[in-house]
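**Protein record**
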Amino acid sequence: MRKLYGVIGVLWGLMGIFTLLIFAIYRLSFIALDAFSYDFFWYHWLVLIGNTLFMAHSEGYRGFQLNFSPRVAARLKSLFEFPTFLHVITAPFYCIGYYHIKRSKQLLIIGLTTGILILVYLIRFMPQPWRGIIDVGVVVGLSWGVVTLFIFCIMAFTSKHFNYSPDNLEK
């Protein structure tokens, strides 16, 4: 029965997180593509390229590949091996790290989520093509995140030594 809880928790956690990320990519892609229906001047292209590179590095590489994806994969593996009723029913929240994690890390995750929500709200008021230019970078970063999360999840469940901690990212 414990193994079944673990499988249910992993599937629920994966489904919840991937759905959230893929829905954001899907929704923002239309706004990003709409920006290209406007006439771009040289400075639009400059900001588009700069923002996309910045978001790929900061959100995709540093945010997802170095932090979020390995932590979520490690927490999914931990959930599979040591499932509790609370962690299984709240698996997406547990895997992201909103609770049952070092307090300093928890506050960082909650603060980061709050900051992202505030930015999402404020960016809604930007006119096109600027909003779309910003969203191109976000889509690139989120897509990078989905790919790295998938890879880290495969690594967590197929390798014998997945050296990432579910609480901290110390190898």
